[in-house]
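Exercise 7 asks you to align residues with tokens for two separate proteins.
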Amino acid sequence: MSENQNNPADTSHEVAVTPETGTAVGHPERFPDPGVPEHKHRLTDTDPRAAKRAERTVTILFVLSILGTIGSIVAYVMVPPDGTTSGVRLSTLLIGLGLALSLLGIGVAGIHWAKSLMGDKEMVQERHSLATNEEDRAIAVRDLNEGLGDSGVVGRRGVLKGAFFGALALFPLAIAVPLIGSVGGDWNISKFKHTMWKSGMRLAIDPSGRPIKAADVTVGSVFHVVPETTEAYRETHDWINEKSKAVVLMVRLNPEDLRTDQSPPGETWSHEGIVAYSKICTHVGCPVALYEQQTHHLLCPCHQSTFDIADSAKVVFGPANRRLPQLPITVDDEGYLVAQQDFAEPIGPSFWERLK
């Protein structure tokens, strides 16, 4: 087959080809079409035992995939995250290993199947005219006319026609009404720019609400923190709304490992290596709670945004485009950790802007 035959759209080098030799006439630098190379048989094509081994291998790989799927489901049910870092890591690891085995088994089995058992001979499909013959065209036109006639029955049935068009006309209201109703909602977006943290408010363990002393925080420890409130308030719906904005992750580092924080010159927003940052990821608002003690990195499990706690919680990886807001903290006269003020910048996704 000549180059021109391989690429019918290329008319810049059209030449004649002799049917006897397949060589180009009138173009001395052209060479004969080498054609399709001789088919080389695989071992599985000539040796039934090799084919049987390949079949067993593919089967085993698919079975491993099945076991991986079952294992991931069992891990999800039997080893749920218990709220601790180690528990979340173990659950994530087991589920991930099961899914990896499942997908890897399917992928490798499919590749091995295709390379060793499926046919690998070159196939040629002859081209033919794509035009439909007159008889098929007539049948198609007849069927279209019959369908058009059947649809005309709707025009003679008033109730059916009214119901049909009424349903089509009313359906958009199912979308439009909620949208229109939301226009009259609460659009005071300043509520989302500030949290309930205030100067002197103690940091408390979530969910018990017990205040935290600085002496109780050891190097490398991680605390999930909320503002200290009364037990009665923690039972209210308003507390759920406020807590969702005010949640904090607090970590204690060796003071020499703390390179920078977000405090302005002349101020200190940390206490003896203890730093507190918003748990709400600045990408889309997922809870950031996976802390790597060796690297001082904080990981968001949703989209893998990674923040460096030792360096102002700046982004070191992932889609988040700004650091986690820091909660300025200090200690009171009784040694309890307290907030100096609210976050100095808005928490949550970075498209939020604080109203001054």
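Second protein for Exercise 7:
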Amino acid sequence: MSKTTDVTVPHPEGDLEHFQDPGIPEHRHRMADTDPKADKRAERQVVVLFTISVIGTIVALWAYFAVRPDGTIGGVRASTMTLGIAIFFALAGIGVGAIHWAKTLMSDHEVVEDRHTTRSPDDVREIAVQKLADGIKDSGIGRRGVLKGVVVSALALFPLTIAVPLISSVGGDWNVGTFRTTLWKKGTRLTYDPTGRPIKASDVTIGSAVHVIPEVSDEYRQTGEWISEKAKALVLMVRLDPRDFKPFAKGKENWTYDGIIAFSKICTHVGCPVALYEQQTHHLLCPCHQSTFDVADGAKVVFGPAKRPLPQLPITVDSEGYLVAQDGFDQPIGPSYWERLR
């Protein structure tokens, strides 16, 4: 029950006005509150939702061990899709089940409590504990044995979808030294991502930004190795007016071709894809944490948490006018804590 009080508020013109506290609106009973059949039906629905979560967890564990990537893109896709869908149902069953339970079975009476000091007296704390106990009793969990069992099962099993992959990966390949090298090497053609079509220097206009991957065979593009190697070799290439470049670092004077310059697309902060190019300022922006790199000044950091420039890919053209790499990146790609001496 709430008590009605008069509240005084200042009037804009200086007078005082009074209004009555409207209190809590009249409680409206739900079907489950008045109809035993509706109550039982709602309980069954909640049980089904949590059962879906249990099944989703079991399928996720099965998929992790049974539907393993076989080294092909199709195999990786099937493994990822199966595992993802199963975990979705495991999580969705818990979330939707909890919401439906709260909406249909738990008490929905609105109450008002006066605000007190942070530390309540002992007798008040005892009352609060009793109210928690009453709330548990009111939720019906004690007398709904099937519901209690399926809720406990769903909550207990779901963490396995995360714990099992983590535990099974212990002892795996954690060698970050693999980030020192990529597929880029002398003579590798630059191609459009994702088509793999080689790029001619004459096709790149001033002000444009092109997403680039190294040229590989069609057979290699179907392998699982290509997926991880492509992720390391992603490049963003931009063409500027050569007059916009700031003085190049010593030894890098010939790493561009007619205003075309290429950098690793992997942010040196935490590895997000740097893909936003601002043509007027020649800045590259990482969308994750707003690290900003100046393309005209060797992709140096001008803002944000990144600690070093984007690694540059030295480029030139071959005899047919196609853009090719002069060598690999000038430094290890990715976040700074992956950097190692060559």
